[in-house]
Amino acid sequence: MKKEERIQALVQTLGSDSTVAHDPFYLGYFSLFNEQKYYEAHDVLEHLWLKTSGHSHRFFKGLIQLAGAFVHLKKHFERPHHPTDGRRLYPARRLFELARRNLLPFAPSYLGFDVTGAIDLCRANVNQLEASEFQRNPWTPENAPRLPVPR
User: Fold this and answer.
1) In terms of CB atoms within 10 Å, which end of the chain has fewer, N or C?
2) Using 50, 70 and 90 to split pLDDT, how confident is the model at 6?
């Protein structure tokens, strides 16, 4: 199965709320992110981002980078002594910074989403990584963030 077909099938399994006016790929991002499936969230929104131009393009890019940062933190948490996954805290910080910069123009909210909350989430994670001098991963399954689903 091709990547596009796999993503289509994944979004279809998430269901659809006909009372919400947002694209199912956009809503799928939040559903997957909140299930700690950051890589899948990234893929689903990337599918929409690649077909988007104009103002929303940068917004989607910031959300993709946010999910990517959490991919790094989750992989580091799962395998902190792995030769590759053990070095994911610096790339996570870089993605948090990129996400924050891309989301800033959309604050306080955009497409029904609390952008300011996402920016604060980026800042908090960068601060925790830097305060520990990249020795402690701020992410655990128990404290994993949840993003409010746009309405």
Assistant:
1) N
2) low
Q: What CATH number labels 3-13+22-131?
A: 1.10.3450.10
User: Which distant-in-sequence residues (6+ apart) come within 8 Å of 23 by Cβ?
Assistant: 48
Residue 125: CB partners within 8 Å, gap ≥ 6?
69, 73, 92, 93, 96, 138, 139
Q: What is the pTM assigned to this prediction?
A: 0.89
Identity of the residue numbered 100 = R
Nearest-angstrom CA–CA distance, 64 and 68? 6
Question: Residue 10 — very low, low, confident or very high, per pLDDT cuts 50/70/90?
Answer: low
Nearest to 37 by CA among 13, 67, 11: 67
Contact 52, 18 (CB under 8 A): no
